[in-house]
Amino acid sequence: MKRFTRLPLAAFLSAILTASPALAGSPGHTTLVLDLESCISTALQAAPEIGEAQADLALTSSKLDEAKSYRYPQINVISLFGPAPGAKREDISPTINTNKPFSIRDLTWFASTDVLLTQPLWTFGKISENMKAATHGTEVDKAKKQQKGNEVALEVKKYYYSVLLARETQGVLTELQQYMQQGKKKIQELIDKESDSGDPMDLYKIDAYSGEINKYMEEALKGEQLATAALKARLGLADNVDVAVATERLELPNDTIPELSGAIERARLQRPEFKQLAEGMAARTALVDAAKANYYPDVFLAGMVSWAYADNRDRIKNPYISDTFKHTYGGVALGLKWHLDFGITAAKVAAEQAQLNRLSSTKSYADSYIPLQTQKAWLEMQEAKKNVTITQNAFQSAKKWGAAALANFDFGIGNPRDVFDAVGVYGKMKAAYYQSIFDYNMAKANLEYAMGDHQVSTSK
């Protein structure tokens, strides 16, 4: 009887939650009765991981918009206002006066505006490759958001099924408590009748077994409270809102286990991690090419307008003389900008290539690990499904054994020890039966996660 059942959920959830808050019951509280899909949907809306992933996606999208904007003209405007020396035409006509003294009394004011417009024509990939990198980076963050959503969904399933397992365990323990009470009543009747089959020591045994059952019942109750509290926390519900699972029983899903080869192929096609790696490598490749483009010049079209006005200065109309403080001119030109350095560009190219090589190594790991993860979940489903049948047959046989042992005991030809043993095996196997169903559901959830079946929308 000491190990008649497995109660792993209490120990598991105790590591997650350090306290077990009371659930529902007080005035002003609202209880939401949700099925599994509703719980997942609610958790995805409240999950901080999804909000963080959405923020990362918005940041990457802004980088893409920035990269696209480099295709368009850029305009620089500089305006000045300040003092300027006065100047007259006669100072340079008919001869240039090279010995004109400076006087503060000659100071006047000036205002100027210079406008420079540049339109990139050819950058050898600086703009296009950065746009490509930003586009792939956006897809990476979309896949990250899907991955976070899948992780949240898997966690919700774990808490949801843990609540159901705790309830089923309580049902088994309640049934065992009833058997103990019936057995105690029967033995007491035999003792009262002074029957040879009645032994007071059997009463002590029943009390001892009942105490152990009651101990496990408390653990199961605590396990349900912890699982419910963890589910509520994952759903992000307010303090005055409680949650209850809509499913009444922990049952084996009526579905078929997919072929292992097909499951692995679906994982390769659907897992967000593979998409992240593919898009990430494409982004890094584009960044390597963008870094290499710095070896080459930028070709651009430039347009410039310059205007300046100063009081107490004569305008000089001579192409050989340029007056900083009083002029108007402009023009269009084809430009070439080329930055040359000794090792800086090469180092940047090497850094981007190193990041690309790092992703390549990560992809090699994912190519072997994700199929292994898929196979593990698939094998656990196979094992759990077989264990369901095995434990179901075992607890049904133990129930028949107990009925036969009790009948023999009633006729005075049986030993109460046989009844205790049968009830103990019955309780152990029935608890193991529900544990197997829980294991199957969790293996199924893990397989769905491994295959990327629970796709989370990237829209907000």
Concise summary:
With 460 residues, this protein is α+β, with helices and mostly antiparallel strands.
Tell me how many strands there are.
6
Average pLDDT confidence is 87
Q: Enumerate the spans where pLDDT stays under 50 for 5 or more consecutive residues.
A: 1-25
The CATH class is: Mainly Alpha
Rg over CA atoms, rounded to whole Å, is 40 Å
Distance between the termini: 53 Å
What would your notes on this structure say?
The chain starts with 7 loop residues before the first helix and ends in a 9-residue tail after the last helix. It has helices at residues 8-14, 36-46, 48-69, 126-192, 200-235, 260-270, 272-292, 344-410, 416-451, and strands spanning 30-34, 74-85, 107-122, 241-245, 298-310, 327-337. It is built from 9 helices and 6 strands. The chain has a single domain (8-20, 28-72, 124-296, 343-451), classed as Outer membrane efflux proteins (OEP), CATH 1.20.1600.10. It has a 4-stranded antiparallel sheet, with no helix packed on it. A two-stranded parallel ribbon has the order 1-4. It is of the alpha+beta class. Helix 4 packs antiparallel against helix 5 (200-235) and helix 7 runs antiparallel to helix 8 (344-410). Mean pLDDT is 87; it is low at 1-25.
